[in-house]
Amino acid sequence: MKMYIPMAMVAFRAIIAPFTILIAYFAPELKYWIAILAYLAIISDIFDGILARKWGVATTKLRLYDCWADLLFWLCACYCIWLCFPKLVLMYKFWIIPLFILEPIPDLIYWLRFKKTGCSHAYSSKSFGIALVVMFSFLFLVEIAGIPFFIAIALGLISQTDRILIALLLPARICDIPSFYHAYLLRKGKNFRKYSLFHS
What we know:
Blueprint: H1 4-26, H2 32-54, H3 60-84, H4 86-91, H5 93-102, H6 105-114, H7 123-142, H8 146-169, H9 180-187
Helix pairs in contact: 1-2, 1-3, 2-3, 2-7, 5-8, 6-8, 7-8, 8-9
């Protein structure tokens, strides 16, 4: 049972992901629900990791499923920005497009090096997730982009760069790497302290 609860929370994010697109496409007047679903997603993302670690069931498979569910949800949610605010996306396309170009590169590097996808759960990725929730709050609740929009894009570019460097520096496929600096430490054979609150 202790394994199934965190797994169910991961599955929850994957299940609600397509509903964001359905709302944006068929009921844009209810787009505030996209922000609500984003809050539910980030809450489930936080607590599935906390419970899994507390109960000793934070397996590599669960970490991978967690990464895939996160990716699915946020890709669907970000597509909703295009559906609801196409002019905004077109206006800042040269900032947004690099985010999507960089997204698959870390996993491509993992696959070429280790024949498996990665699950770094870096601090930068978590910061990006929080920034996305804030940005969604402004966009889908009050229809304002503003500073949260640019902060989210900036943190997204930092996060993608960090993930790429982690994939390049790791000596083996290891999960829960706080940053590229920590990947560098592992490459040099040095250990570091992990804070359980921040890892899935």
